[in-house]
Write a structure and sequence with these properties.
The complex is a heterotrimer. Chain A has 2 helices and 8 strands. Chain A is α/β, with parallel strands linked by helices. Classes of the chains: A alpha/beta, B alpha/beta, C mainly alpha.
Chain lengths: 157, 266, 260
């Protein structure tokens, strides 16, 4: 009988440790705060160049994440990238003249979309498009331009 | 109750092959109800296989194995498990469950097949253990038992459900004379007290002839002789005589079938 | 030419037959009316011997692997000034690959081999036969609870492994080498997606759990009932499980993380 008790206590302990570990994975490691899918609404924006922006990249206002990139498709007519974003439903007061720009976290970090707020009293609704966009700064292009500038400067003298 | 025939197990034209090697070829056997039947034969003649055929663990190639009128090889899996609750089997290695103690080993079939209360099981188990003289050993684990004691515990387990018949697979093999004597006594006692039918498979001639009511001798895939122990002792058929007297060579050959000796050495 | 082709075909057929037998074996063990009360008791007992006994090796190995990852990851990342990505690197590595795979390999060595040996010995000592003769189906009584116990234990062990390893790398990276604590956890949380990384890792370990215990109980059940046969069956369990884990891991990774 005592043996049986040890077995049951052991298994109970095992299960609880497993559950705690799972909770840690979900909350501490995955940063999951909502078990059910969060309510979101969708916005789109068109960019001339998205650099290395990927699905699930962050969408942030003032550096605070408010949503993520849901899909990236190509506009076949204008050859621009259409980025669909999911925005947290609580953030329902983004002015319609806000601007979206693709930025890089640090020098080598990944791309994310930063939204600079506008001043209009009307707010963006589900399915709206952010008209004003700034495409990604491509580091190689900048370096290329800089080097070209140096060369033309020296060549001009 | 329908009238029961005197024959509990009826085996007819039984043939069984392992790969292409015949183990049994046209064996006929009758096990009388309420008696102790001995099945003897040299090692390797498939005596254990015969028990497995009766228990339905193996299926014969041809022939019938009728236990109480039901042909074992044709039963479905569920029916077979149901019939087996009426059988007891004592394995050569005792086959106790090593992770539970003596008491739980004997209680196992009761817990498995009945809904008896714990106190009922407790009483029944102690009765069975008392019958084999091991009531005091109930809290020992199987590895603490001697070979003879383990076999007696296994016997208590085999009779836990009061089966119709019990099969002993080499009950005397590897036992010292005292343990053998105890087992012989127990087999006779249980058979008579519980009104069971017993089948003993063994090559221990003296013990088997001593305890059995009727004896079959098997060799060369066939029944070579049967009768009461006295008749078998007096049997003049050369093969039976060779086995009973323990002569090293005779019609039951000393040599396993082989090429002529010269072929192997040249 | 024809001969070798025939031999190849024969080998293929016998492999198929073995898979078929093993599948049938598993199906007949698991399908059927379960006895809920008894089944639960047996399961608890097996969870103890399969799961709880594996806990220590999993925790200790997890801790060391996490610490090594922290150390190595730091020394690589610091060259790029990217040591703040340590948490991301460690957690993704663990959740997607190392956690499920290493836990499964340890589990195959610790619990799988023990299962095979136990069942093989039960067969050798005629315990399985005697169950059958008592009218108890050894497949349901012996095999099924062991299978479920392994199936339940491995995902739990893999989760524990990952968590311990992440904390191990936290200890080395943050407490010892001085990565910023906020960056460690923050970047990790930003990069790890619950569904795509954590859950996919758990799905992997569920698959591994099924395969390992399947192999282990089958090998035990078909083991030749001699000491040599059981030894060989135990070895086969470890070898087959390890190969199956690594092969399946590639397949699962290709399916789960293939399109990016």
């Amino acid at each position: 009988m005592r043996n049986k008790k040890i077995v049951e206590v052991g298994v109970g302990f095992f299960m609880i440790v497993g559950l705690i570990a799972f909770a840690l994975l979900a909350l501490q490691v995955s940063g999951l705060t909502h078990i059910t899918p969060q309510k979101t609404y969708e916005l789109t924006a068109q960019f001339g160049d998205i650099g290395s922006l990927k699905r699930r990249a962050a969408v942030a206002v003032a550096g605070v994440q408010i949503g993520q990139v849901k899909a990236i498709t190509l506009n076949k007519e204008y050859y621009t990238a259409i980025v669909t974003m999911e925005i947290d439903a609580n953030i329902n007061n983004l002015p319609i003249d806000s601007a979206a720009s693709i930025k890089t976290r640090g020098i080598l970090g990944d791309n994310y979309i930063s939204i600079a707020l506008g001043f209009d009293d009307a707010f963006l609704r589900d399915g709206d498009e952010i008209e004003e966009t700034y495409q990604a700064l491509i580091l190689e292009d900048l370096i290329g331009q800089f080097v070209a500038g140096q060369i033309s400067k020296t060549g001009g003298e | 109750m329908t009238e029961q025939s005197d024959i509990l197990i009826k085996i007819r034209d039984l043939s069984f092959f392992r790969e292409a090697r015949p183990i049994f070829d046209g064996v006929n056997l009758d096990i009388p109800r309420g008696k102790i039947t001995g099945i003897m034969g040299p090692s390797g003649t498939g005596k254990t296989t015969l028990l497995r055929l009766i228990g339905g663990q193996l299926r014969p190639n041809t022939g019938t194995v009728e236990v109480d009128g039901r042909n074992i090889p044709t039963l479905s899996r569920d029916q077979l498990y149901h019939v087996r609750e009426r059988m007891g089997m004592l394995f050569q290695s005792a086959a106790l469950f090593t992770d539970i103690d003596v008491f739980e080993n004997v209680a196992f079939p009761l817990r498995e097949h009945t809904d008896l209360s714990d106190s009922m099981i407790h009483d029944l188990v102690l009765m069975k253990l008392e019958a084999v003289g091991l009531r005091g050993a109930r809290r020992l684990m199987p590895h603490e038992l001697s070979g003879g004691m383990a076999r007696r515990v296994a016997l208590a387990r085999a009779i836990a459900l009061d089966p119709d018949f019990i099969m002993y697979d080499e009950p005397f093999a590897g036992q010292d004379p005292i343990a053998m004597g105890i087992l012989v006594k127990l087999i006779r006692l249980l058979n008579d007290a519980l009104n069971m039918t017993s089948i003993i498979v063994s090559h221990d001639i003296d013990e088997t002839l001593g305890v059995a009511d009727y004896v079959y001798v098997i060799a060369n895939n066939k029944v070579i002789g049967h009768g009461t122990p006295d008749a078998i002792r007096a049997d003049e058929s050369p093969r039976v005589k060779q086995f009973i007297r323990g002569l090293p060579d005779g019609l039951v050959p000393f040599h396993y079938p082989a090429e002529p000796l010269e072929d192997d050495f040249l | 030419m024809i001969r070798s082709l025939q031999r190849f075909g024969h080998a293929g057929l016998s492999v198929c037959a073995k898979f078929g037998w093993a599948g049938l074996f598993l199906v007949s063990a698991l399908v059927g009316r379960p006895n809920v009360v008894l089944g639960f008791k047996l399961l608890v007992k097996q969870l103890y011997s399969v799961g709880v006994f594996s806990l220590i090796i999993i925790v200790v190995s997890g801790l060391f692997i996490g610490m090594v990852l922290g150390l190595q990851g730091y020394s690589i990342l610091v060259d790029f000034g990217a040591e703040s990505a340590l948490g991301t690197m460690v957690s993704l590595t663990l959740l997607r690959e190392l956690g499920p795979v290493v836990a499964a390999l340890l589990f195959a060595g610790r619990a799988g081999s023990a299962l095979t040996a136990e069942i093989g010995l039960m067969k050798a000592t005629e315990q399985l036969s005697s169950l059958e003769m008592m009218g108890v189906d050894p497949l349901r009584r012996i095999i099924a609870p062991r299978f479920w116990a392994g199936q339940i234990s491995l995902p739990i062990l893999a989760i524990i492994f990952s968590v311990v390893a992440i904390y191990g790398s936290y200890m080395v990276g943050v407490q010892w080498l001085g990565v910023s604590e906020g960056a460690f956890w923050g970047n990790m949380r930003a990069a790890v997606d619950f569904r795509e990384d954590t859950l996919n890792g758990i799905i992997k370990s569920v698959v591994f759990g099924a395969v390992i215990t399947w192999i282990a109980v089958y090998q035990g059940y078909v083991a030749e009932p001699t000491s040599e046969g059981i030894g060989r069956a135990t070895t086969r369990t470890v070898v087959h499980s390890s190969l199956a884990i690594l092969g399946l891991d590639f397949l699962l990774t290709a399916v789960m993380f293939g399109e990016v």
